[in-house]
Amino acid sequence: MKRIYVLIFLTFLFNSCEKKDCCVNFDPVNVTVKFTHNWDGIPINQNDFDNFKFTTENGELISIDLLRYVVSNVTIGQISKKYQLINVGENTGTEIVLNQVPKGNNFVKFRFGFADVDNVDGVYQDLNSTSFNVPMMMGGGYHYMQFDGKYKDSNNQDANFNYHTIRAVNMSNPMNLILEDTSFEVEIGTIEFSKNTTIEIKMNVAEWFKNPNLWDLNVLNTVLMPNFDAQKLMSENGRNVFSLGEISNE
């Protein structure tokens, strides 16, 4: 009789553990990745556009007329989204929701722009319709970012800048373009998720002009897409643009 009681107890214990393991891997949460924008800590929104109100590290007063960019492979653990266009001026695309994220620790990362394997000409219809393509004579594919505005030049006159980032292309031989993937991965790090969560990713727009390459708009302002060296400099500066902001739970 005693052996029967022991057997019943062990069976109960085994079933209890089995159910617990099952529940650990279930009950996922939803995570919102929210992109915000600032100029050295001062928030930027669409109301700040078309006004001379920001000063670069090199001392140029600028206005922002257009700021939109693509992030791709937005990944939390094993859950990911292929890409999203973020348009700051229209306040669209700034939130990316990833559902069914397992509870527990998950690594968070995304890519600015498209890696070469995903930067396939003409395949993203929504980007095709918003003039985000790169001409085939520059290797095709898509922009990573379109950042347009005006600056006060050395004569205090209004001048245009087009800080467009794409895959770097050396066009010295048009029949044999040399391409270099200048997109980059942004690793946010490991975050523990126990509830539905919102993660803020901050873009400090001022960093595009300052670190590690001090940007002089009187020298580098427009026609930057076919400038191989300028694209590499912009890519280097972009690696200091993003940082983790607030994490909030519902």
UniProtKB/TrEMBL annotation:
Pfam families: MbnP
InterPro entries the record matches: MbnP-like_dom
Origin superkingdom: Bacteria
Residues covered by the Copper-binding protein MbnP-like domain: 30-214
Name of the protein this chain belongs to: Copper-binding protein MbnP-like domain-containing protein
Organism listed in the record: Polaribacter gangjinensis
Organism lineage string: Bacteria, Pseudomonadati, Bacteroidota, Flavobacteriia, Flavobacteriales
